[in-house]
Amino acid sequence: MKLTEHHKNILHSKIRLTHCNSCGLSSISFSDTIYEMREFNGGRLNLSSSLYPVIVASCSNCGNTVFYNAIILGLVNQKGELIK
Ligand SMILES: [Zn+2]
After folding, report:
1. How far out from the chain centre does Cα 81 lie?
2. Cβ atoms within 10 A of the Cβ of 5, count?
3. Fewer beta carbons within 10 Å, N or C terminal of the chain?
4. CB 83 within 8 A of CB 76
């Protein structure tokens, strides 16, 4: 699910990640897509397992990757719907 400009503004108003906490360079970029992280189930997809909608921030220098919970950021509600 792609983020709108409104959602990107919310994201950048709440997160002040300017430098990578691994290599220290300012090479961080945020995804413009909401991904989902599911409970590991031995390699089998379990659609009833819990999941987290996440925004991904990654460093283009060292590959350090950080996930932000899109529900806590106020981008997605508890039903998994994008908040307008
Ligand atoms: Zn880095």
Report:
1. 15
2. 7
3. C
4. yes
Going from the Cα of 68 to the center of ligand 1, the distance in angstroms, rounded, reads: 17
Q: How far apart are CA 75 and CA 84, in angstroms?
A: 8
Cα gap 19→75, rounded to integer Å: 23
Instruction: Judge contact between 59 and 27, C-beta under 8 A.
Output: yes
How confident is the model over 59-78, as pLDDT tens digits?
999 999 999 999 999 999 98
60 neighbors 49 (Cβ within 8 angstroms): no
pTM of the model: 0.85
User: How far is Cα 59 from Cα 75, in angstroms, rounded to an integer?
Assistant: 22
Q: Report helix, strand or coil for 82.
A: strand
* 33 CA → ligand 1 middle, Å: 21
Q: Percent of the chain, pLDDT > 90? A: 69
